[in-house]
Design brief:
The chain is mostly helical. 68% of the residues lie in helices and 0% in strands.
């Protein structure tokens, strides 16, 4: 019973987290409907989404002790130290990239601001360093728990984070207009563009 309740909470939290985060990256779109308070509301959406991310991680730990009763391997077929090593190999570059994005985005990471200009730093190379770093962090807990089911479940992060970026870019076009369109031409979404001769 606990296993299924936990799994339902995991799915519901994942869906709600995704919906709220998508809403949080669209302050300019929301501003057309409710005015400048849209930016504060989007900050609230982002904060709740962040709380839900921690709930999802919590459900992963609960899953370790109360897995759903399905015919699926409970642990990876290799020694546990290999799973820990994989988690470390994922963690170091992903966390570093995400934190560079957080540093260069500043307060806008959690609180959208109408006065914010385009970011510098790593954003001069790629448009979504935070998303590119954070998406891979969803495999840290599954590997530390040695759980193939949780690793498989974490695959949903890839399309979800891509959607975050797509919705955010639509909103940034509204906020910055031609400046953002020109910026998109110069930078890659996730991979730096080659400079043309």
């Amino acid at each position: 019973m606990i296993s299924w309740i936990n799994f339902i909470v995991m799915i519901f939290s994942s869906l709600l987290c995704s919906l709220l985060y998508i809403k949080s990256v669209q302050p300019a779109t929301l501003e057309k409907k409710i005015g400048e308070k849209a930016y504060k509301r989007c900050a609230i959406y982002r904060c709740i989404s962040g709380i839900l991310m921690f709930i999802i991680i919590g459900t992963q730990f609960v899953y370790f002790f109360f897995p759903i009763p399905i015919n699926f391997p409970r642990f990876f077929p290799w020694d546990y130290w290999i799973s820990v090593l994989v988690a470390i190999v994922i963690l170091i570059p992903s966390f570093t990239l995400m934190m560079k994005g957080v540093r260069d985005a500043g307060k806008e990471t959690m609180r959208p601001s109408k006065e914010q200009t385009l970011y510098g730093g790593i954003y001069e190379k790629i448009r979504h360093p935070q998303a590119l770093g954070e998406v891979w962090l969803w495999w840290i807990v599954p590997f530390l728990l040695n759980s193939p089911f949780l690793a498989l479940y974490s695959l949903i992060a890839i399309p979800i984070f891509y959607l975050f970026c797509v919705f955010e870019e639509k909103d940034l076009k509204i906020r910055y207009g031609q400046v953002y369109i020109d910026y998109k031409k110069q930078t890659g979404m996730f991979i730096p563009k080659r400079k043309r001769q």
